[in-house]
Amino acid sequence: MLIWLAVFATLAGVFLAVGMAKLKILRFEGAASSLALKTMEDAMIILDSEWRFLSCNESAKRLFSSLASFPRTQPIRNADGWPRELDAADEAAEIIFNSETGAEGGPISTYRAKTNRIVTPGGKQLGWSIVIRDTTEINSLIGQLQNLATTDSLTGIDNRRSFLEKVEREIEMASPSRLNTSNALIMYDIDDFKKVNDEYGHAAGDHVLCEVVETIKKQLRSYDIIARYGGEEFVIFMPSSKEDSLCKIAKRLCGVIEKHEIYYGGTRIPITASFGAVQMPPGSNFSEAMLAVDEAMYEAKNSGKNQVAVGVIKKSGKTEERAF
Questions:
Q1: Across residues 259-275, what is the average pLDDT?
Q2: 3-state secondary structure of 261
Q3: Which of 232, 288, 295, 321 is catalytic?
Q4: Neighbours of 260 (CB within 10 A)
Q5: Active-site residue flag, 85
Q6: Neighbouring residues of 131: CB distance < 8 A, sequence distance ≥ 6
Q7: Does 219 score more than 70 pLDDT?
Q8: 116 touches 89 (CB < 8 A)
Q9: Average pLDDT over the chain, rounded to whole?
């Protein structure tokens, strides 16, 4: 009998120790979860099944200051500053919204909200959890990377890759089966640019490239596409341009470069450029147009520089040029 009592006491002690250990673990898990919730950078908001407010963490209170004293069981949409994009959320989803930070009129930040159902093991819905993350910095970095991939770092205009992508869309839009419109392609190259670098230095050459680009941009329409195609060579695509105005436009651009006074370090640097231009009727092949405009530009250079040569696209790949 005494032996069984001893065994029972031992087992009771073991179970008590295990129970105490489990209790400590549960308390630790609860404290750890509470601490994690409080210190997490993302905002977390807990709602009931009808989207009425139950609780939130400190990050949520910093994002929506009204939640610090917001009454429980009140519709969350009544909270000051609550984004309208989340009003219509009735299923698990990721929603992007913008919101002012700081005082009214402050900078705009971008957020990604993820809504999730809170359900029992049996599948009954108890409520909602919303986790909101500030993605402003990430979006800014993505924008910078995209800009680096599509923009010429010196002049700030499109690079060749971006130009080709944009022009491809424009040509498709202008096709006979769609708008059936004619476009224009202009290419220019700064005359004797190597002499500019040799005489004034590469910094002066960079300054010249930027000055010429800014001068040309002022003469273009908002939807014209200008890009640095390589070195001191630039290309312009002009959607919906009429053939009778092509030469006039190119000559005007040539003239403004010649007349524009460029100074670097107090020294005036005279600059001219040679232009090639071609009209692109609906259905034109872009590769053939590029060949034509390139040959026309070099015809302008070979004919004395600081002038315009208009090329004609031929399907054989050969072109005819007329210098003006």
A1: 97
A2: coil
A3: 232
A4: 15
A5: no
A6: 42, 43, 44, 113, 114, 116
A7: yes
A8: no
A9: 85
